[in-house]
Amino acid sequence: MSNELEAFIEYITVTKALSSHSVAAYESDLKSIEILTATPLIALTGDTLLQTLSTIENRRTMNRKLSTLNAFFSFCHKQHFIEGFAKFKLSKLPASLPKYLTYDDIMGALQTMTLQTWIHLRDYALILFLYATGARISECLHVDMRDFENSWLCIRHGKGDKERYVPVAKEAMEAIAAYRKASPHESSTLWLNSRGKQLSRISAYHITQKYLNVSPHVLRHSYATALITGGADLRVVQELLGHASLLTTQIYTHLQAEHLMQTVVQCHPLSKGTL
Fold it and tell me: What burial class does residue 1 get, using C-beta atoms within 10 Å of its C-beta: 0-12 exposed, 13-18 middle, 19+ buried?
């Protein structure tokens, strides 16, 4: 790893206080380019970098790497490692809504579950919790019982170590209580594996895949979608999701407009049957 790359990793870890997952993603992207070209990043020309990335077929992956390079060279410019730089332009992507499940999809799957063991109760509670809070899986797995106050949850391990409070639906709280009562393990950590240790990301993924055939993150999108189609203000959804910028939340505005149109068509006498 070049000295400049080491300094950048230290900067985003200490000064920017990015999560360990974000730091690892930045480091992986940048190190892979240095290894592939066998040259320090700041010694590479823009044309060489673009040629190196041109073999990537997935445009989202390429955009992520270009965004990472922009952050790295911006840092190098501010630290006077380089004289100047021109930002790489990202590839335009078609607008698309994230995958989500409806309330009926989720509750229908939960009704088929057998709740005979504490593991089954845990899986049931985990799915309800993710749908009721919109928490990222990394946030979810770090929840401690002391983070609850009545029916409110303080999420302490959000991106950039920012805290936020979200209300938790009664049904999810009851499912958590039933799971905790049946668990043979004593721990303040909420989500446990069969050995009484903190549940892993891969185990959580297997749980949502098993019952819903989706990743845990789809339940976060399902939470946001339910709020938007239910009439929630976009800024409220931004706060509940812990998005730093409203621009991130605006991916749901198309869904909001579509829902409003359907409501008008269904409810207004001049619009009925126009769709």
Answer: middle
The catalytic position among 65, 136, 142, 180 is 136
pTM higher than 0.85? no
220 catalytic residue (yes or no) = yes
Asked if 201 is an active-site residue, the reply is no
Q: What pLDDT was estimated at residue 135?
A: 95
CB of 166 closer than 8 Å to CB of 133? yes
Given the residues 157, 220, 221, 223, select the one marked as catalytic.
220
The candidate with the shortest Cα–Cα distance to 96, out of 255, 259, 260, is 255
Active site residue 159: yes
Tell me which residue of 207, 211, 260, 204 sits closest to 231, measured CA to CA: 260
pLDDT tens for each residue of 236-250? 999 999 888 777 787
Among 31, 120, 156, 217, the one annotated catalytic: 217
Which entry of 120, 159, 164, 259 is annotated as an active-site residue? 159
Tokens for 166, please give them: 């979200």
171-174: list long-range contacts, CB under 8 Å, 24+ apart: 171/128, 171/132, 172/125, 172/128, 172/129, 172/131, 172/132, 172/133
**Active-site residue, 243 included:** yes
- Beta carbons of 22 and 159 less than 8 angstroms apart: yes
